[in-house]
Amino acid sequence: MPATLVAPQAPTTELAEELSGMERAVALYASDMPSRYRLQGPVDTTLIGWIAQGAARLGREEIRRRASYLAGHRKLWLRDMTTPEIDRRHKERFPSKRRLGVAESMASTSLFWAPVTPAARELPAAIDGPCPKCDDAGKLWGNWVIDDASDWYEEGYRPCWLCQNGGAA
User: Fold this and answer.
1) For 146, which DSSP code?
2) Torsion of CA 110, 87, 74, 98, to 10 degrees
3) Which of 41, 76, 99, 154 stands 20 to 30 A from 11 (CA)?
4) By the 8 A CB rule, do 117 and 124 touch?
5) Which backbone phi and psi does 76 adopt, to 5 degrees?
6) In the chain, where do the E strands start and end?
7) H or E stretch including 90?
8) pLDDT classification of 163: cutoffs 50, 70, 90
9) pTM
């Protein structure tokens, strides 16, 4: 029987387009991508293959969950509001800082040739643990400025700006 020739197919970008930038970073982190990887040209199909591999390893729901926590950690980190508990959980999820940095860099670069669909942009940022601002009460007590010109202030509870109403995280 003659040997069958199979032309190697480049990985499809359809799966990558369904993932947000953070989801792509999580997929790359879970894939076989080398930790010291550098781009291999203007359109790197190997990178798209690794995104698909990582997505297959973790599954869509787990990638979305981890990406939400990663986005929440980034937003807290930018405001210098991470707690030791949140940092510990982040390190359990992503033990290699270098690998995560490369994965995030490559994921953002992949946006040039595999743009994100509008539905994939709706990734909520989640806090893994209690809110560092209100300790999960969902509300904050304070003097709220109503009208600064007339010195009108009110005291009372308002929703936490960090964890409620689509705040920072």
Assistant:
1) E
2) -30
3) 99
4) no
5) -70, -40
6) 139-147, 152-159
7) helix 84-93
8) confident
9) 0.76
